[in-house]
Amino acid sequence: MYRFLLTPRWWGINLFVVLAIPFCVFMGTWQLGRFEDRVQSHEQAEKQPDPSTRAAKPLDELLPVDKVTSGRPAMATGTYGDQFLVPGRELDDRQGFYVLNLLRTEGGKALPVVRGWLPGTASGARVPAAPQGVVTVTGDLQASENIHSDGVDARGGLPEGQLGMISAAALVNLVDYDVYDAWVTLPEAEAGGTGGAMKPVPAAAPAGSGLDLKAFQNLGYTGEWFVFAGFVLFMWFRLVRREAEAVRDVALGLVPEAGPADGPEDGEAGPEGSRPEAGPEGAGASEGEAAAQDLAGKTPETAQGS
Predict the structure, then answer these.
(1) pTM above 0.85, yes or no
(2) What is the rounded distance in angstroms from the CA atom of residue 16 to the CA atom of residue 27?
(3) Alpha-carbon distance 98 to 162, whole Å?
């Protein structure tokens, strides 16, 4: 009954099923692993002490920025140089902008330092001046922003002196010196009152360390891939069952085999169950046959006398 599974058409269907199910299971398992990694990172982050409470270390000892060093206090010494305003940043449910200055370190490389946040728009804003001379700053270390970071404006076209994304890639075309692939945010207002009007910007949690929307997306994708695998198996079973039932019906004679259309045999009645009516020609032929029979029944003598 199941010999049809060896036909070329079913070979193609079987090959698709054999390849599709393992692929769906693999993708579902991979998405589940991504979700478990995010959960594990979240649990580890909760067990560790607040990075900002740990002892400060020199900047070079904490680079490159990763999930462990993100948020750690970093120290750097240098002089403040170019200043940029970072518009479209929200703090305490209010719109405002960051005040960012590049700290030129002794090695010549610059460290972006977010000195604070101010409400309002960045265009034409007056901000407190940065400290003069050599300073040592201690700020919470942050990784460079990307297009997926909150508040980032990657459209470009900002006025001169404004910056849409805090990253070395965005600053490389604005300054003629090297920039660290990281930045720090000052946890407190600057000493001396120059930053008293600005609010400190809290450090953000490292990317991928919490149960954010992406984690639950991975969990949803896991369910989808396993559902796809079950759907493929269900459809294959349904097609096999339908084909087997068709083969069985043919074998039992429940489905007649298609043949040439035959008309009614000789002597059989037509569709109405009656013989065809005789037309004028048919009537003449009947009368001739009757006359021939009368003649045949007469003798030669009577035929001559008639």
Answers:
(1) no
(2) 16
(3) 10
